[in-house]
Every structure is written in structure tokens, then in C-alpha cells.
Write a structure and sequence with these properties.
Shape: globular
Strand order of the largest sheet: 1-2-4-3-8
Structural class: alpha/beta
Helix content: 25-40%
Distance between the termini: 49 Å
Mean pLDDT: 95
Strand content: 15-25%
Order of helices and strands: HEHHEHEHEEEHEEHEHEHH
Number of helices: 10
Oligomer: single chain
Amino acid sequence: VGTAVGMALYGLVPVVEIQFADFIWPAYDQIVNELAKYRYRSGGEYPAKIVIRTPVGGGIRGGHYHSQHPEAAFIHVSGLKVVCPSNPHDAKGLLLAAIADPDPVLFFEPKRVYRAAKGEVPAGAYTVPLESASIVRPGRHVTVLAYGAMLYEALDAAAKAAQKGVEAEVIDLRTLWPVDIETIVDSVKRTGRLVVVHEAPRTCGFGAELVSLVAERAFYHLEAPPVRVTGFDTPFPYTLEMEYMPLSHRILPTLLDAARAS
């Protein structure tokens, strides 16, 4: 990463890969104290365009050193953009958009869907705009925010909730920061309820920021308290990873309770 920063300052656009996001911490100083600040400290003269790709998340029996989802630590840093695609089409389009973007981008790739998510990918160049969320399942009773591998768990829970008369609107955030708050708020104003799903631990996770953003902008539209379904405040476990992760069986009762709460 340090070498890539130097390359970027000379006008190149390096795309760096870190094998697992769990291994990113030795480069945290270069990312946070150097890369994220060059555009600001130089008055825009040196934007330092870099994309850092790295796999994130659990569900592959990787244990606690290969399964973490550290997005919140980078979303907290001014000057960085953070992306987490959920499918092949978005992965290519968002990656090309990240390479073209003037700011440094952390590109988190959910390793659990590397071989699980399949879809058509155009052969030519195209981009998926950063800062644009996607409503992947329309609904009217509760808004569900998810990203990466947990999007599929949210969709599965939404399908099961529909069998019980609850129609959940599922939004794939795609770009975590800057987040598409307009799409989120518009949805919450229609449904009156919010559920946020993410793999990372609950305390100070990205879900807390999303809840705050919605409360600031749509408080009087909420008919029930926003709810988070997340990982637990423990190290990522090896033998109990399916109990740790917020899978469909944990999301479903939350959707049903949220839709019925007032």
C-alpha cells in the first residue's frame, strides 16, 4: 500500500489486493494517515487515486483470522470511499467506477459469494455509479438494508416473511460510503420500519450509523424502533460461525416483529 501511494502521487492508478481483509491492519497507517489525507492536505493537487481490493466476511470455515468484516473502521475515516458488491454484474461495474473515481476506494469483496453468486456480466466496459443503492425486492411493510453476502440472507428471510403476509423491501447498499441515503429514506417513509443486517459486530458497527441517519431524516415516519441484526460482540468463532452470522433464520423473526410493532 505504501508503494501504491507513491505510484498514485505520480499519476498512476494502482489497484492493490490484500489477500484477506483480516490482514489489512499493518497497512492501516498508510491508508488512514497518508492515503486518505493527500487530497485534502494538498488542496486537491494530489488526489492519490488507489483502489484496494480485499475479501471480507465469514461462512467459509476460515476461522477468526480469515472471516472479519472491518468496514466500519474505514467508513469512519474521511477521504475514503467504501464499496461492497453482492453480485458479478455490480462487482465489475463498481470496480470500474472505483478505478475512475478521484478518491481512494476500499473495495470489499464478500468471499462467501465468490462461487455462490452467478449472473450475466457484459463483456464491454460499463460502470455502476458509486453512491447508488439498489432496491432488489420491493415491499411495503418494512425496509431491510443489507450488503455483500448478507443480502442473500435478507432476501431469503424476505421471501419467507412474504409467506406470512409481510412484504419486506430489501435494499442492496452496494456503496457503503458515501451511502445512498436518499433511496433509504424514501423507502423508510413508505414502510415506516427499518431493519439493518450486517456481519460485523453490533457495537459501533455500520448499522448504528445507518439507524442514526434514518432517525435524523425520517423520525416522524417511523412507526417502530429501527432494529439491527448483526454479528455478535465477540471474536469471529470457528466452530460456531453459522450461529455468529446473521443468517436468514435470525433475520426472519426480526422482520415479522418489526412489521407488527407500533
